[in-house]
Amino acid sequence: MSIPELRFDNPLDVSQLPDEQLLTKLPALGRPQPLGNLYTWANAQSAVVAVVLLQCVLTFFSGYAGASTWVLSGPLALLFAGAIVARVRFPYPVYTWIVILVAAPTLAANVSMAVHRVPSGELRLTIVWAELIVCLLMEIGIHHFYLAKNGITGKGKRADRFDQLTGEMLNYGFAVLVAFVFIAIFLGALAALWATTIMAIAAASLRHARLNLKVWKDFREAAISFLFYPSAATIGPGNVISPTGNMIARVILVGLAWAAGMSLAVSAGVARDYFTAAAWGLLPPLLCIALFYLVYSTAGEVIRLGAPEGTWSSIVESMRESPNPVERNGIFLGYVAADGSPVVVDRELLFQHSHVLGATGTNKSSMGLAPYIEQIISFPDTSVVIIDLKADTPELYHAANSAMQRYRSDTTKFGELKMFSLENDTGTHVFNPFLTQGWTNLSLLARCDVLCTACGLAYGNDYGRSFFTSSNSAVVREANLANPDAMSFRQLFSDVARLLTENSDTLLPEVRKAGVHSMEVIGRMAAFNSLNVVPGNGYPDAALDAQIQLADFFQRPNVAFFRLPSTTASIGAPAIARLVLFFLIIAGKTAERKIKIHIVCDEFQRMASESLDQIMQLARSHDCSLTLANQSLSDLQASSSRIYQAVSGSCAIRQWFSVSSLSDIESLQKQMGTHEEVQVTTTHSSKGTNTSYKVDHVPRARITDLHTISEHPNLSVLQVGGSGRAYARYRGIPFICYSNYHISKTEFERRKKLGWPNDLPGMIKAKEEVQIVSFKSPSNKKPKRGRKPDLDNDNPPEQRGNRWDPGLFE
């Protein structure tokens, strides 16, 4: 089976970008993601062809120029030296082509003189080659130091090191130049060049030993970055533009230096000095390696800090301090795999909601939710509510805690991170929804509807379902009428139990029988002590003072983490998660909304119900954004068609870390569209060969592509829709995104192994206190009626299990 190569493109509409470009610049291609190297080798094909053609032109020119070219070689060499000096003063990209235009005929003339044994020919060729080497060294240095200084990795604390590193590089260069001059005077040019090559490698090795970097990996990245860095015409928005011309010019410059060195080897071979010829022949590649090695070992301290975990924090810090208001209010989501350009969306777009999808083990939490949580907390004017319905490992909690310590150290302004837990004997803050501001302002019917919907007692409006929904609603309504001042689920439960166990005339017997489920569900909620703390029931005042009061989240920036393991609390955990969402809306209705709230729901499908589509519609108007995470869209479709339609249709941002279900694959293929591809067909016959061309529209993402993306640890499919504001002008077309850990993988694994907090201020011990109900037989029970005669003998009296209780509905 032949699997076609994965294709990448960037659907960004550059013409619609703001006039003020991104100030957060990233080095393109190999940095910060190595995926760009796939394109460097494809681009290198044209560069190799250009160097081969250049070699052919030089050979042709040197063979026919003859000795008369010495008249031109001197002035050209001086002009070449002047261009090198001017490079320091005028670092423009066009300079590289000027050097090539001057160096090519100069080199050809000197090659001709050396081959024809013209006096001073080899000396002139050596001088020209030395000039080319100096030019190459300078271009490599300018390229890497410019990327280091102007890229995101050169910002902040690293900017202080840049001047020092530049001084070190100049000292290295000056030492190598002095050594070359002295050795050349006493031992000749060849010995001087070999000596300086060895010195450059030794200096770079010492530098690398101090930095503890990987030599081969760094050299490879340095060479790839210089040779194949994209030009300004093809570079993605948000990437640093190199001042050293385009890729072809840089590759040709290296080719010229190489060609000059090999020409010296050829001229030495003409003189039948094979030892000298071998020395000259080995020198060019070694000297080029030494130059890359020396420059990168110096600039590498700045550039290497562009590793993904270092780059992410630098990007976020740079964006928060940016003078560009659009960028300052932006969210960084990753990199476009096609060109490495950063994906930055306006924070307001999140209030059209976002959706993160991916199977277990596809880095949905580590590369999707954790960096998102930390980045949202970096805004000083927003509250964050995290609902973790998996809660098996605490990495999301520690991501929030780390961001709080880093960005919100002033607890008097931002408060402490609050955590609510269900598991027995774990530390938890109090969260009593009945104490939420605005709850008592609702009518009794409104309270009834909210409790039934959040607790999963509303099954729908279909025939049959509506009967049991109405029965549950009637039970909760009568309990609220009996005690309108109930302050907890325990107080509500006692009223519900009294209505169902006593012979009350307020409910029909059929309704009382069908509404037993409401007592069971409310009884579960009453069992959690952290959900039922009220003033005066024996808990310390510190617990009430530190309780999670949702109205406060609209007043000042707060962060709350709800640890709700739905595996061990499959009924209670989803109900509490829905309560949080509903009571946030209630608090938002009555509280003065000074700031906005971002809500993150992990394993969202476990709390999905028919009514949550209303939450998605109301959340934005109440300054709440939702970020939902689950395995696939088909999970939601299995839970409820209404919630599936609401989530699939109302989320402006959607990211697939894996595409597993068939329905998701088919949907994504259609959304990504097609592109034109030329199909070439060749037929052979007795009359000759016939070639035909046909333009086909093929999918931008094939099934094999989506499988490849799902298996790749860093690739995902990202769709940015909504209003397409600011720099997120992707026109709603899904594209392939590159993501990485925002911290080191070691640190992420360490966080997963950390424990849950148990000693935060205001915490109590979570406990389950099962509410006992005693069922008493009614005293005024009517006598049983006699059975009808069994005429067909199909229900004999001795089958006691089949007897009908005539008082069942009495």
Care to describe what's here?
With 810 residues, this protein is α/β, with parallel strands linked by helices. The protein has 27 helices and 15 strands. It has an eleven-stranded mixed sheet, with helices on both faces. Strands 6-15 form a two-stranded antiparallel ribbon. A hairpin with a 5-residue loop joins strand 1 (330-336) and strand 2. Helix 1 crosses helix 8 (247-270) and helix 16 packs across helix 17 (489-501). The model is unreliable at 30-47, 62-70, 783-790 and 795-810 (pLDDT under 50).
Anisotropy-based shape: elongated
Helix content: 40-55%
Q: How many strands in all? A: 15
Strands in their spatial order, largest beta sheet = 2-1-14-13-10-3-9-8-4-7-5
Short description:
The protein is of the alpha/beta class. Helices cover 50% and strands 11% of the residues. The chain is built from 27 helices and 15 strands.
